[in-house]
Protein backbone atom coordinates (compact mmCIF):
# COMPACT_ATOMS: atom_id res chain seq x y z
CA UNK A 1 0.00 0.00 0.00
CA UNK A 2 1.34 3.43 -0.87
CA UNK A 3 0.28 6.80 0.38
CA UNK A 4 0.77 9.75 -1.95
CA UNK A 5 0.76 12.33 0.83
CA UNK A 6 4.21 11.12 1.94
CA UNK A 7 5.62 12.92 -1.08
CA UNK A 8 6.21 16.63 -1.50
CA UNK A 9 4.20 17.08 -4.74
CA UNK A 10 1.57 14.95 -6.49
CA UNK A 11 -0.38 15.29 -9.76
CA UNK A 12 -2.76 12.88 -11.50
CA UNK A 13 -1.62 11.53 -14.85
CA UNK A 14 -3.67 12.68 -17.84
CA UNK A 15 -5.53 9.34 -18.01
CA UNK A 16 -6.02 9.21 -14.20
CA UNK A 17 -4.43 5.76 -14.03
CA UNK A 18 -1.63 6.92 -11.75
CA UNK A 19 -0.27 9.75 -9.66
CA UNK A 20 3.10 11.30 -10.46
CA UNK A 21 4.83 12.29 -7.25
CA UNK A 22 7.98 14.36 -7.09
CA UNK A 23 10.37 15.81 -4.57
CA UNK A 24 11.76 14.02 -1.56
CA UNK A 25 10.13 10.68 -0.84
CA UNK A 26 9.90 8.82 2.47
CA UNK A 27 13.16 7.03 1.59
CA UNK A 28 14.99 10.38 1.32
CA UNK A 29 15.47 10.17 -2.46
CA UNK A 30 14.60 13.19 -4.59
CA UNK A 31 12.87 11.64 -7.57
CA UNK A 32 9.87 11.47 -9.89
CA UNK A 33 7.80 8.38 -9.21
CA UNK A 34 4.69 6.86 -10.72
CA UNK A 35 2.14 5.44 -8.28
CA UNK A 36 -0.12 3.08 -10.25
CA UNK A 37 -3.72 3.09 -9.00
CA UNK A 38 -4.61 -0.38 -10.24
CA UNK A 39 -1.55 -2.35 -9.20
CA UNK A 40 -0.55 -0.17 -6.26
CA UNK A 41 3.05 -0.25 -7.45
CA UNK A 42 5.58 2.53 -7.22
CA UNK A 43 8.11 3.05 -9.99
CA UNK A 44 11.01 5.51 -9.84
CA UNK A 45 11.11 7.20 -13.24
CA UNK A 46 13.89 9.70 -12.64
CA UNK A 47 16.19 10.14 -9.67
CA UNK A 48 17.98 13.45 -9.11
CA UNK A 49 20.73 13.10 -6.49
CA UNK A 50 22.02 16.45 -5.31
CA UNK A 51 19.11 18.31 -6.92
CA UNK A 52 15.64 19.45 -5.95
CA UNK A 53 12.69 18.71 -8.24
CA UNK A 54 8.96 19.27 -8.00
CA UNK A 55 5.56 19.41 -9.69
CA UNK A 56 6.14 16.70 -12.29
CA UNK A 57 3.28 16.14 -14.76
CA UNK A 58 2.87 13.98 -17.84
CA UNK A 59 2.34 15.72 -21.16
CA UNK A 60 0.16 14.64 -24.07
CA UNK A 61 3.25 13.74 -26.15
CA UNK A 62 4.57 11.27 -23.54
CA UNK A 63 7.18 13.51 -21.93
CA UNK A 64 7.19 14.35 -18.24
CA UNK A 65 7.70 18.03 -17.40
CA UNK A 66 9.00 19.17 -14.03
CA UNK A 67 10.80 22.00 -12.27
CA UNK A 68 14.25 21.50 -10.74
CA UNK A 69 16.99 23.46 -9.02
CA UNK A 70 20.13 23.04 -6.96
CA UNK A 71 18.15 23.25 -3.71
CA UNK A 72 14.65 23.51 -2.30
CA UNK A 73 14.79 27.32 -2.13
CA UNK A 74 16.89 27.94 -5.23
CA UNK A 75 15.53 29.39 -8.50
CA UNK A 76 13.76 26.82 -10.68
CA UNK A 77 14.17 25.74 -14.29
CA UNK A 78 11.64 23.69 -16.28
CA UNK A 79 12.88 20.38 -17.70
CA UNK A 80 11.34 17.44 -19.53
CA UNK A 81 12.19 13.76 -19.19
CA UNK A 82 11.46 10.96 -21.65
CA UNK A 83 13.13 7.56 -22.03
CA UNK A 84 16.01 8.53 -19.76
CA UNK A 85 16.76 11.79 -21.56
CA UNK A 86 16.43 15.08 -19.65
CA UNK A 87 16.15 18.34 -21.58
CA UNK A 88 16.27 21.91 -20.29
CA UNK A 89 13.15 23.79 -21.41
CA UNK A 90 13.34 27.25 -19.80
CA UNK A 91 16.01 29.49 -18.37
CA UNK A 92 16.11 29.94 -14.59
CA UNK A 93 12.92 31.59 -13.32
CA UNK A 94 12.98 34.24 -10.57
CA UNK A 95 15.45 34.56 -7.72
CA UNK A 96 14.29 31.78 -5.39
CA UNK A 97 12.10 28.75 -4.96
CA UNK A 98 8.41 28.86 -5.83
CA UNK A 99 5.74 29.25 -3.18
CA UNK A 100 3.21 27.79 -5.60
CA UNK A 101 3.20 26.14 -9.03
CA UNK A 102 -0.04 25.45 -10.88
CA UNK A 103 -0.13 23.75 -14.29
CA UNK A 104 -2.78 24.88 -16.75
CA UNK A 105 -5.46 22.31 -17.71
CA UNK A 106 -3.69 21.34 -20.96
CA UNK A 107 -0.26 21.24 -19.27
CA UNK A 108 1.31 23.54 -21.81
CA UNK A 109 2.25 26.16 -19.20
CA UNK A 110 2.57 26.65 -15.47
CA UNK A 111 2.02 29.61 -13.17
CA UNK A 112 4.84 30.12 -10.67
CA UNK A 113 4.45 32.35 -7.62
CA UNK A 114 7.88 33.28 -6.28
CA UNK A 115 8.31 35.27 -3.06
CA UNK A 116 11.07 37.87 -2.99
CA UNK A 117 12.45 40.17 -0.31
CA UNK A 118 13.53 43.74 -0.85
CA UNK A 119 14.55 45.99 2.09
CA UNK A 120 12.96 43.54 4.56
CA UNK A 121 9.65 43.67 2.67
CA UNK A 122 8.31 40.47 1.13
CA UNK A 123 6.34 40.52 -2.08
CA UNK A 124 5.38 37.99 -4.75
CA UNK A 125 6.33 37.84 -8.40
CA UNK A 126 4.22 35.86 -10.87
CA UNK A 127 5.57 34.05 -13.92
CA UNK A 128 4.12 31.91 -16.71
CA UNK A 129 6.53 29.24 -17.96
CA UNK A 130 5.59 27.40 -21.16
CA UNK A 131 6.68 23.99 -22.37
CA UNK A 132 7.73 25.86 -25.51
CA UNK A 133 10.54 27.44 -23.43
CA UNK A 134 8.88 30.82 -22.93
CA UNK A 135 8.95 32.60 -19.56
CA UNK A 136 6.87 35.71 -19.00
CA UNK A 137 6.57 37.73 -15.83
CA UNK A 138 2.95 38.76 -15.24
CA UNK A 139 3.32 40.46 -11.84
CA UNK A 140 2.14 43.84 -13.16
CA UNK A 141 -0.84 42.19 -14.90
CA UNK A 142 -2.11 40.62 -11.66
CA UNK A 143 -0.99 43.23 -9.11
CA UNK A 144 -3.32 43.34 -6.14
CA UNK A 145 -5.20 40.18 -7.09
CA UNK A 146 -6.14 37.94 -4.17
CA UNK A 147 -5.96 34.80 -6.29
CA UNK A 148 -4.58 33.94 -9.70
CA UNK A 149 -5.93 30.75 -11.27
CA UNK A 150 -6.16 29.11 -14.69
CA UNK A 151 -9.53 29.08 -16.45
CA UNK A 152 -10.62 26.83 -19.27
Describe the protein's topology.
Elements: E1 9-12, E2 18-24, E3 30-36, E4 42-47, E5 52-58, E6 64-69, E7 77-82, E8 85-88, E9 100-103, E10 109-118, E11 121-130, E12 135-137
What is Rg?
Answer: 16 Å
Q: What is the count of helical runs?
A: 0
CATH superfamily: Kelch-type beta propeller
Note the main sheet: 4 strands, antiparallel
- CATH architectural label: 6 Propeller
Proportion of residues in extended strands:
over 45%
Q: Give unreliable regions as ranges.
A: none
CATH topology: Neuraminidase
Shape: globular
Helix percentage: under 10%
End-to-end separation = 35 Å
CATH class term:
Mainly Beta
Structural class: mainly beta
Our count of domains comes out at: 1
Give, in spatial order, the strands making up the sheet with the most strands: 1-2-3-4
H-E string: EEEEEEEEEEEE
Number of strands: 12
Mean pLDDT across the residues is: 90
Account of the 3D structure:
There is one protein chain. The protein has strands at 9-12, 18-24, 30-36, 42-47, 52-58, 64-69, 77-82, 85-88, 100-103, 109-118, 121-130, 135-137. The model has no long low-confidence stretch (mean pLDDT 90). The radius of gyration is 16 Å and the shape is globular. The strands form three sheets. The chain has a four-stranded antiparallel beta sheet with strand order 1-2-3-4, with no helix packed on it. A hairpin with a 2-residue loop joins strand 7 and strand 8. The protein is an all-beta fold and 152 residues long. The chain has a single domain, classed as Kelch-type beta propeller (Neuraminidase, 6 Propeller), CATH 2.120.10. The relative contact order is 0.12. It contains no helices and twelve strands. The N and C termini lie far apart (35 Å).
